[in-house]
């Protein structure tokens, strides 16, 4: 058997013949198929246009060995979107030219620019933010109602979902939060001790590290990592469930989305976030302690024993409380964006991005609110 | 013997310990419509994926137009792109692109056609599969399953392929649409001189289109032959498949009662 992959296709060609009585005839030969044409189109197209512009000419396609829709369309366009008046062709190619009359390409319309477009843009954005807020409040309300329902019927509490979510968002996040927490602790401690050395205030490294890590950095760092890690996963999961109609299937079975999907995720993050915060705090302080020992020569036992004096215990409770709130918010935002995903791939990508960006922003805004509300708490 | 467009030689497919195909030899001749049939889970779609080069055989080889699909030459997928078209089971339209852009994508990828020609070719393909021009700007998510299938067929035909793969072309279409889909494929087959490989469950489609039928059963290729030859086979699987209530009806409707005498 010959190798047909390498078989040569006869090249499409166009020849002009002028008969003795002065009439022109254009003879086409070779294969006028897309495969053959695509490499020669740049050369053939202008010649074809030139020939088609000539008056009273005959077109002879009998020499054409193969022609497909693309070839027929090319000729049709050259003839000015109609059949050439004087055309001879093989009978088997006739059907290709029978059905080419298509609506022409519409001229691109240049929309007039609206002088108020900036205002309209801002208004749309504002409305969209309001729209999101309403939807989030609606989900939150439904979750509260579901919680009330579960308090009355504790047998319906989805323990399995809650525990698997705690495992996924908590246990599996221990590694990454430890790594980031340790490095941040080392960097913070190293830079602060450089400054403190100038003033001989070495011992204050414990105050700086303790307050900043336990009160501020631990919760925010953990929340940002969890928002990126678990928030995106929740949004994508719900989004894919929308695409594959699993959400519809649940609704038809009478299982409310909020009860079985959203509530367990919110509860799970409310449980695992403070634990992750505690873990991040501990590892970040460990990192800080190692760096302080290396840089300032502060002993580990001295560091640990003076930590409770330097940092009032209220800071720890505040940090853990922030963890609970951040966890609830991350889950809420992630679920909200997950439920709004439309069944196409682009929406999935946009939804996941928006979810992560929004939850990180919300975490930082809420953190600022906490800072103002508790400005008199835990700082001696 | 007619030239083989696709040739599978001693092909084995294996996922882990699970063997899907054992020693399959199959040749598809130029210009024929070959149907792959078999029970659910018998590996029909996997065999189609082997022909497309989307799976790698555990043993054996696949030749397309005489070229080894898994040979040393990595350029084969690119060279094949304008010689074969594929209609996936769920259409596999790009959900981020409009109907028009979906069909235009393979044409634009050639990088030699101008916008006007692409527009006309896309519109022609859409009309060929019976999609009205006003649907061209819609997104795939806004369309019904039948329309998605027809647009996917238009995309598969965009580069004027010689070889067309159809995975369950009529699944999920209403009887009227199935009928017109079958007519459409038959017309295209005649007009464009296509070679078609089709996976189908639908006996009506099978009877209406196939020039030859390959039956997959228990990891092996049970029989390859014309519909008459296959139906004459006494294997219990074939009896169940073709001689059940539905099979008899399809055969009677499709070709007259000569098989059932």
Summary tags:
heterodimer, A: 380 residues, alpha/beta, 4-stranded mixed beta sheet, 12 helices, disordered N terminus, B: 261 residues, 6-stranded mixed beta sheet, 4-stranded antiparallel beta sheet, 10 helices, 25% strand, disordered C terminus
What is the H/E string of chain B?
Answer: EEEHEEHEHHHEHEHEEHHH
Biggest sheet, spatial arrangement of strands of chain A = 1-2-3-4
Query: How many strands of chain A?
Result: 4
Q: What proportion strand of chain A?
A: 5-15%
Q: What is the general shape of chain B?
A: globular
Radius of gyration of chain B: 19 Å
Q: Label the overall shape of chain A.
A: elongated
Q: Cα-atom Rg of chain A, whole angstroms? A: 36 Å
As a percent range, the share of helical residues of chain B equals: 25-40%
Please count the helical segments of chain A.
12
In whole angstroms, the N-to-C terminal distance of chain B is: 31 Å
Low-pLDDT sequence parts of chain A: 1-6
Structural class of chain B: alpha/beta
Largest sheet of chain A: 4 strands, mixed
Largest interface: A-B, 32 and 35 residues
What does this molecule look like?
The complex is a heterodimer of chains A (380) and B (261). Chain A is of the alpha/beta class. Chain A has helices at residues 34-37, 41-53, 69-78, 117-152, 159-169, 174-199, 205-243, 246-252, 257-296, 300-310, 314-339, 345-373; strands spanning 13-18, 24-32, 57-67, 86-88. A four-stranded mixed sheet of chain A has the order 1-2-3-4. In chain A, helix 3 links the parallel strand 3 (57-67) and strand 4. In chain A, helix 5 (159-169) runs parallel beside helix 9 (257-296). The longest helix of chain A has 40 residues, at 257-296. Chain B is 39% helix and 25% strand. The model of chain B is unreliable at 256-261 (pLDDT under 50). Chains A and B meet through helix 2 and helix 3 of A and helix 4 of B.
